[in-house]
Amino acid sequence: MFATSHDILNWVLAICAVSLTFFLCWALFYFVSSIQNIYKLIKRIEDGVTKAEGIIEMAKDKLRNSSTYFMILGEIAKKAMDFVAEKQAERQERRQEQRQEPKADKKSESRRRSAMN
């Protein structure tokens, strides 16, 4: 099998070439696997960022729409407060009139009584 040292050298070189090829293929496999995992991770991050952007855009749209609703609600609230203030003023006027009417009634009653007597 081994006739000369040159044969031994050829066998050692062949074994080294096979081992080097095996380890290079093994390293290449793990490198490609790592690159694939990184690609999947980047894809997930991009999907997350896209969803976050969608949520932010939706929130902006809702805030724009709700700001118009808030303006409308503000106007309604303002008119309601004006209406309540008017009603309170009317009530106070009525109370003042009611307080003044009994005095006038008492005077007219005393006049009637004196007229009857």
Helix and strand layout, with pairings?
Layout: H1 5-116
Largest sheet: none
H and E string: H
Please tell me the overall pLDDT. 86
Cα gyration radius (Å): 49 Å
Portion in beta strands? under 5%
Globally, the shape reads: rod-shaped
> Helix amount, in percent?
over 70%
> What is the SS-derived class?
mainly alpha
How many strand elements?
Answer: 0
The DSSP helix count reads 1
Taking pLDDT < 50 over at least 5 consecutive residues as the criterion, the unreliable ranges are none
Measured between the Cα atoms of the first and last residue, the distance is: 162 Å
What does this molecule look like?
With 117 residues, the protein is an all-alpha fold. The protein is built from 1 helix and no strands. The protein has one helix at 5-116.
Features of the shown structure:
96% helix, mainly alpha, single chain, rod-shaped
Concise summary:
This protein is mainly alpha-helical and 117 residues long.
